[in-house]
Design goal:
By secondary structure, the chain is mainly beta. The protein is 7% helix and 33% strand. Residues 1-37 are annotated as: Disordered.
């Protein structure tokens, strides 16, 4: 038997969530801000309650509970892995939290109850105790553990990426890559940050929903072992769908390791070279634009790569313009090892094409790999946190989730990393350890112009965080190389004849080929730069201009592992186009001058008004005899106060 509820009129309206603090310290922040109803609901939706300890016929109440709706002015939580419902029961002892371990309807009564804790809008965490008579069959009272759905460790699903293809018409926006975002109804929810489509569990089937609300659904294969992932392969019609008359999608599931081999199109760049004639304008770099015919479409200013499914079973095509409708000039069958992208290497003649020109050469690179020298040169200064361990200098450590991960090298704790499973992807800062899997304290949306690097500038509150009320950090990007070279001056001497113009002082200008490039301060002739293509890498001095493309006049092998040009007298090491008089390169570290501030003396305190001041030993700042403090003008008092401050 269970305790039955009787309806009664509630004398007072429930307190508005926006005016009441709630939640245990772990899942809900104590930061005091003015919150709206939507803020309250978003925070409660992120709470997961793990119940342990129920036994006997009440064992079905164990599991993970998630927010379902509001009931009696408080959140109601339903078991996503079995039976059970947490709800507020206002009709007993001023209000109690109740757990029904055998059903999901609050009107059916309850088996365990507990008085409210420090958070009146959530069930009290920890071990529940016997506080009143209950009909629970003698089962031990449950233990409640609160966690955040977005931060729960789900290693078996977090490392997967879902690829959806084959959607056309109104559902074409569902094509693309889906990342794990959070747990929903006991199963992982995957989202596409670009199209805002979601792939989630609903009752007894998986549902693929577009932003407009149209969807496909598919039941799991009962002949296979139960899985927490959506069914892979081609989905088929099983029931009435809102997207009727549209081809069903194909779902491909890749692991984190395969994700490295098959990078997402958004992180890929295609370099085209070798086109001639009218197609020469198609040379250059191509970036992902959108999905087309179930495959990614890449464009630059004068060309477009797109998929043509109705020719020879499907081919990749390169055409002029920025849209695929006008047709194409070159085509190539897909590479079986990576059919999701145009085949890399030199394309060859495979079928009749409209232009009998040289076929292009494709080089497919990851944007991260291309940016890696810049990433390794970046130092991130973080300041302003009252969680003092956060502050310090962060440097690149490794790739994590397809983005760079930075760790604090100042001796404190801290890790800055990419979190793809929250709000379509955010940058996260954990100020208490070096492990990204341990959660985070601050997050910030990526800068659309620089999505591959942490957001620069002052971070601000954007979502619920467990940061103990700390101020949000100030993130400042600096160049390690620029900082090092700013402390060093480079000078060249000894050149004669037509090369004498490169003598003089040089200053750092930019990074070139992964190392610093220095320009002569006269800005007319003289450039020192790194040339990696000659003899395994040499330092070069160009005396004909200020551009490396103008060629070099003197070269020298590097000395040691220094990132700076070789110092000392350069020698002839190979044949050069010069007059044989090699320069001397001097590297000098700038001396830091200590600024000596003038000593500030404390002003003489005023004497007591009862003690007369003699003209012999006290004079005013203007040379007149001082008067008592009561007779001093207000201007003098203000002057003394300002001097004291």
């Amino acid at each position: 038997s269970v305790v039955r509820m009787t309806s009664s009129r509630v004398g007072k309206l429930p307190v508005s969530p926006s005016r009441e603090s709630f939640g245990p310290p772990s899942p809900i922040s104590s930061r005091r801000t003015t919150r709206t109803r939507s803020d309250f609901l978003s925070e409660v939706e992120d709470v997961a309650i793990e119940v342990r300890g129920c036994a006997g016929e009440m064992a079905g109440g164990n599991g993970t509970y998630e927010f379902a709706r509001l009931h009696k002015g408080k959140p109601l939580f339903i078991n996503t892995t079995g039976k059970g419902v947490f709800h507020w029961y206002p009709n007993r002892e001023g209000g109690i939290w109740a757990l029904n371990a055998l059903g999901v309807v609050p009107e059916a009564g309850y088996h365990f109850s507990q008085s409210p804790g420090s958070s009146p809008l959530l069930p009290p965490p920890g071990q529940w105790l016997d506080q009143r008579f209950e009909s629970n069959g003698g089962s031990p009272y449950p233990e409640l553990i609160f966690t955040s759905k977005s931060q729960r460790e789900i290693p078996e699903v977090e490392g997967y990426v879902i690829e959806v293809s084959g959607c056309v018409g109104s559902m074409e926006g569902c094509n693309g890559c889906y990342d794990f975002e959070r747990m929903h109804k006991g199963k992982p929810l995957f989202s596409n940050a670009k199209t805002r489509s979601t792939l989630s569990w609903a009752r007894e089937s998986w549902v693929l929903s577009s932003e407009s609300g149209q969807c496909f659904s598919q039941s799991p294969d009962t002949s296979k072992e139960p899985s927490k992932l959506p069914p892979a392969g081609a989905w088929r019609h099983q029931r009435f769908e809102t997207a009727t008359g549209v081809d069903y999608p194909r779902v491909t599931i890749r692991s984190e390791g395969e994700r490295v081999l098959y990078p997402r199109p958004e992180d890929t760049e295609i370099e085209v070279a070798g086109c001639t004639g009218d197609m020469a304008e198609c040379n250059g770099y191509y970036e992902y634009d959108r999905m087309w015919k179930g495959k990614p479409l890449f464009v630059n200013k004068k060309g477009v790569f797109h998929w043509v499914p109705n020719r020879d079973g499907g081919v990749w095509a390169l055409g002029r313009g920025t849209t695929p409708e006008p047709g194409y000039s070159f085509s190539q069958s897909p590479d079986p090892a990576n059919p999701k992208l145009p085949p890399a290497g030199l394309w060859k003649h495979q079928r009749c094409e409209t232009d009998q020109l040289n076929y292009p050469h494709l080089n497919i690179v990851s944007k991260i790999d291309k940016m890696l020298p810049h990433i390794q040169d970046t130092a991130i200064e973080i300041s302003g946190c009252t969680l003092l361990d956060c502050n310090g200098t962060y440097e690149y450590d490794r790739l994590h989730k397809g983005r760079p991960l930075f760790v604090n090298v100042s001796g404190s704790k801290g890790v800055l990393f990419w979190l793809p499973n929250r709000d379509g992807g955010v940058w996260a800062l954990n100020g208490k350890c070096f492990k990204p899997d341990a959660g985070y304290n601050f997050t910030q949306l990526a800068d659309p112009e620089k999505p591959l690097m942490p957001t620069d500038g002052q971070w601000r509150y954007q979502r619920f965080e467990t940061n103990a009320g700390s101020n949000y950090p100030l993130v400042k990007m600096t160049s390690k190389m620029q900082k090092a070279t700013a402390e060093v001056s480079v000078s060249v001497s000894g050149c004669t004849g037509e090369f004498a113009g490169c003598n003089g002082n040089y200053q750092f200008d930019r990074v070139h080929n992964g190392k610093p490039l220095f320009l002569n301060v006269n800005r007319s002739k003289g450039v020192i730069y790194w040339c990696p293509d000659r003899y395994g890498g040499v330092w070069a001095i160009g005396a004909k201009g200020v551009s490396p493309e103008a060629g070099s006049s003197f070269t020298q092998l590097p000395r040691g592992l220094s990132a700076l040009p070789s110092g000392g007298q350069w020698q002839c090491e190979r044949w050069e186009t010069n007059n044989g008089v090699y320069p001397a390169v001097t590297l000098k570290k700038h001396e830091t001058k200590t600024l000596q501030l003038p000593q500030q003396h404390r002003c003489r305190p005023l004497l007591s008004p009862s003690v007369p001041m003699s003209p012999r030993h006290c004079r005013s700042p203007w040379g007149r005899n001082s008067r008592t403090s009561r007779e001093r003008p207000k201007e003098l008092l203000r002057y003394l106060e300002e001097s004291w401050c």
